[in-house]
Amino acid sequence: MTVEPIFSKLNHVGVVVRDMKNAAAYYESLGIGPFVKVDREVLREPDAGGDGLKTMRTTFGSVGLELIQPGSRGSHWRQFLEEKGEGIIHLGFDASNVDEEERRAVGSGLRLLYRRRFKEGGGVSGFDTREFGGIAFELIRYPPGLINTSGVVKEPYSRLHHVGYVVADLDAAVRFYEGLGLGPFKQPNLPGVRTQATQYGRPVTNRKLRNMGTHIGTTRIELEFLQPVENAPVQEEFLKERGEGANHFGFKVADVDAEAAKLERKGFKAIYTVTFSSGIKCKYLDTDKLGGVLFEFWQPPTVGITSPPPVMPSP
User: Which of 16, 71, 190, 289 has the fewest Cβ atoms within 10 Å of its own Cβ atom?
Assistant: First the structure.
């Protein structure tokens, strides 16, 4: 299967939650937001049956973050919540003509999961891209003026760098998504020597995983795939408990320790840390209590750079 570039401009990341208002308050307490409720009655096409779906949105760097509270049983969103729990369910991409682009996607072999058309024009079509990576792709076009995308952008969350997936077979995932028109995927180039690493507060020396990344279409935000190989419990536990899926947001920051400390003062813990002699640092924090998504703060290299910066640095 090969899809001509349809999924080219990231519009938003969709996160399924049990309670939309609680999740919005949680993210706002971390510094993301404010969230605005989406009036689905305005968007719903005439005579369309209601599915009880509720959504709220905010600006999340250069894209949107959408919180989704499922309604009726049996829906795609409710099934995800019951089987996997809260978490990232789809990447939503801008469509210039959602009907035409839906036909192209289906004609290329993608299965249509759901579709809605809006009263004032435009609509949404979701496709089953879950075979590798566990989440759907969505094409969306909102009627002009109905969605407030301005929001309040605050650092460090204005610098969303990547969305990280956990996969069981990196090579198969890369082939599949390059077939969707993303890529090419590249292995990270991490200058310097690893000087320190901890997992759950304990030193670790033999952690192994494979990862590759690419920009998401024309967007500067990147897509990262990580396959745990040995002694990588953050990814291994996610894969065992939830199957393949997107498990973290990566934010590019000037000072990892300073940004992580802000969340640590709120009671969050660093579950994985690593530093390199070139200045690279990253920390994962356990922000997944609501929303099911970890936060990673990543500090780019400052010295010893003899080649282009890493595509997707998650050591």
Answer: 289
Q: How confident is the model at residue 149 (pLDDT cuts 50, 70, 90)?
A: low
Domain boundary (141, 174, 196) is at 141
Q: CA nearest 27: which of 164, 154, 159, 163? A: 154
Over the stretch 218-252, which tens digit does the pLDDT of each residue have?
888 999 999 999 989 999 999 999 999 999 999 99
CB-based contact 141:291 (threshold 8 Å): no
In this structure, the answer to whether residues 113 and 218 fall within a common structural domain is no
Q: What's the CA gap between 99 and 47, in Å, rounded?
A: 19
Whole-angstrom Cα distance, residue 194 to residue 190?
Answer: 9
User: Which of 167, 155, 278 lies closest to 232 in space, CA to CA?
Assistant: 167
What are the pLDDT digits (tens) for 74-120? 789 999 999 999 999 999 999 999 999 999 999 999 999 999 888 88
Q: What is the rounded distance in angstroms from the CA atom of residue 217 to the CA atom of residue 57?
A: 22
Indicate if the alpha-carbon torsion angle 78, 79, 85, 86 is positive or negative: negative
Strands (E), the chain: 10-16, 36-37, 54-60, 63-69, 87-94, 112-117, 123-127, 136-141, 160-166, 194-199, 202-203, 208-215, 222-230, 245-252, 270-276, 281-285, 294-299
Name the domain boundary from 114, 141, 168. Answer: 141
For residue 192, the one-letter residue type is: G
* Same domain as 193, residue 134: no
Chain centroid to Cα 87, Å, comes to 9
Residues 61 and 109 in one domain: yes
Domain range enclosing 205: 160-299
pLDDT of 238 reads 95
